Amino acid sequence: MKRFIFLAIGIYMGLMICLSNFHRVVNLSWPQKIERAMALSPMAEYRNAEYGYTVRYPAFFQRDDDTLLDIGTSRFSFWRDDIEIVLTAFLEHNPDMLSTQQAVKKYATDLHATHQRVGDDFFILSGALHNDDGQITGRRFHAKFVKHRKFWFIQSLTYPESCEHALLRLLQEIDTWQVWKN
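The chain above was modelled as a monomer; its predicted structure follows.
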C-alpha cells in the first residue's frame, strides 16, 4: 500500500511540474515564443534551382512555392496574430555595374537605412521599414547585398521591432551569408 501511495504522489508531482511548465510557455509574449522557437528549431537549407544560391532559414518558417514568385526569388515567412516575419532572397540586375560603394550609397538612400556595413563585394543595410507613405511604425529591415558580375544577390529580413532580440540568430545568418556554399 505504501508503494502505491508513493507512486501516486510521484505521478501527481510529475503531472503538476509538466502542467506548470506548459502554463509558462502559453503565457509568453510572441517575441518570447519566437525567441524560444529560434533557439530550439534547427535551420533548414534551401537551394535555388535557377541560380544555385543557398539560404538557411528556421525550420518553423513556411517556404512559399517558387512557381508563384519571380524567377530567382525565394520567400520564407512566419505569421501569427500581429507578428509577420519575412525572409526573402532575390536578385537585382546591376546593368550600370555599380561598385560596392556606389551601390551602398544608392540603396541606403532608397531604403532609408540607418546602419550600414561594407565589405569588398558586399554590404549590409538595416533600419526602419518604409513604404510610399513613409516609415512603417514598429517594422524594421535587415538586408545583405552580395555583388556577382551583373547581379546583386540580396537576402532581406523584415520583422516587427519588438522581435529584434528574438531574431538575433537569423540576423547573424544573414550577416555571414555566402551566396554559394563552399
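The chain has a mean pLDDT of 87.
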